[in-house]
Amino acid sequence: xxxxxxxxxxxxxxxxxxxxxxxxxxxxxxxxxxxxxxxxxxxxxxxxxxxxxxxxxxxxxxxxxxxxxxxxxxxxxxxxxxxxxxxxxxxxxxxxxxxxxxxxxxxxxxxxxxxxxxxxxxxxxxxxxxxxxxxxxxxxxxxxxxxxxxxxxxxxxxxxxxxxxxxxxxxxxxxxxxxxxxxxxxxxxxxxxxxxxxxxxxxxxxxxxxxxxxxxxxxxxxxxxxxxxxxxxxxxxxxxxxxxxxxxxxxxxxxxxxxxxxxxxxxxxxxxxxxxxxxxxxxxxxxxxxxxxxxxxxxxxxxxxxxxxxxxxxxxxxxxxxxxxxxxxxxxxxxxxxxxxxxxxxxxxxxxxxxxxxxxxxxxxxxxxxxxxxxxxxxxxxxxxxxxxxxxxxxxxxxxxxxxxxxxxxxxxxxxxxxxxxxxxxxxxxxxxxxxxxxxxxxxxxxxxxxxxxxxxxxxxxxxxxxxxxxxxxxxxxxxxxxxxxxxxxxxxxxxxxxxxxxxxxxxxxxxxxxxxxxxxxxxxxxxxxxxxxxxxxxxxxxxxxxxxx
Length: 550
Known about the structure:
There is one protein chain. By secondary structure, this protein is α/β, with parallel strands linked by helices. It is built from 23 helices and 25 strands. The chain has four domains: 6-92, no CATH class; 96-167, 2-Layer Sandwich (Translation Initiation Factor Eif1); 189-352, 3-Layer(aba) Sandwich (Rossmann fold); 358-548, Rossmann fold, CATH 3.40.50.300. Helix 2 (50-58) crosses helix 4 and helix 7 runs antiparallel to helix 14 (338-344).
């Protein structure tokens, strides 16, 4: 405690002074347990939340360590109320432990639910949702029997009650399927650390930025488990990339990898399926739930776990006997269901700050610029007269954005350029003006793969991509990204789009990330919200007026 960069504004709110010399070190420490709420130019606001502190507990950080970090960087002593809040929240993680029962993994077997004290069990039994899931409670020992099938539902109930379970019970080993790693797979130190952090528990999420090799972590986890694996992905493009990586980095033949899609339903010891297929319903029932339950999976991998649809979470309660690994660049979910990720997949087991990987040379450095463009008088009048619902699209379609994008493309001529956006009208216009290909949701998957390959190989210098390019696309040589528009204030989307640039470049030069924002419109507010996650990772945006571009 002393003349630090941190001000404790209220019991759960911390203000970070970015002008202070220790601000960067403090920001990296806060990212382990606090959530960045606001990120204006000079002062960032962090929030201490239950989920952030529980994730820190699961990762091995205790309450006293959190309080010590806050105290070390704070300009004033830590108030008793703040310290007590951290202690109370973090103490609740692990007061309920799920342990092995006596009968293994038989359908009629039970697990043992153990509470820290008989009083905790008594309080929980007062809630009918908890009481209906357990049997044979023993108040003197603070334990109860938990039917195996209630493992997932119980963890959801405990999360709702503010007492997240520490699930230490063993998992169904699944059908054995050894995966040998090829000599080409040279794992980086942080990738090994990520796998080692996940293996002991068998559940949880690994958070690494795009370009840091999350697929490698998943493949190494498969080799560590040695069991049949179901890999859930966001798109068929991601499916193709996983298949290529599996063939490249393991002893698996392409014919031994199954695909479960609308056209092909081939199940193999390693099978790839999309979230869309898993969440499909017919007559109110999930059509393909048997893919989860009727096969001997020993591991289920959730690629881009931040994109798991809510409907899929509803059926994952049936697979809590399986090991589960979530992979993502950001745990931010725009639907606010981060708690479902914690409950259904597991807590955060490993997280590496983006800037730290950049410093180590594993990620490219990126210059982020927000360019403010000016609507015409006609566009201003149209915007002013429009309904709040219509204003975002009017702002996104400001014609000056096309001129600015063309200037930027000219400035970066000879580099590999990706242009992204949300509104097809502006994307079609810029693609036509520049004479370059456009990828949208209606582009056939084989054509998408062909165009992405052309951009990677340098045959296509500029590619315009709609929201389908936000996730699971490997474009290592792209050095410039231009955002024409975004999805409201989506932090998740901003992180994914910046992630397209993070692969280190052969020439070692920094990449450039441009966001075009219509001045005096709702886009200015959206931009501040969208950049919040990246500010938490240590990135800053230079704001440039379009008239100053030259």
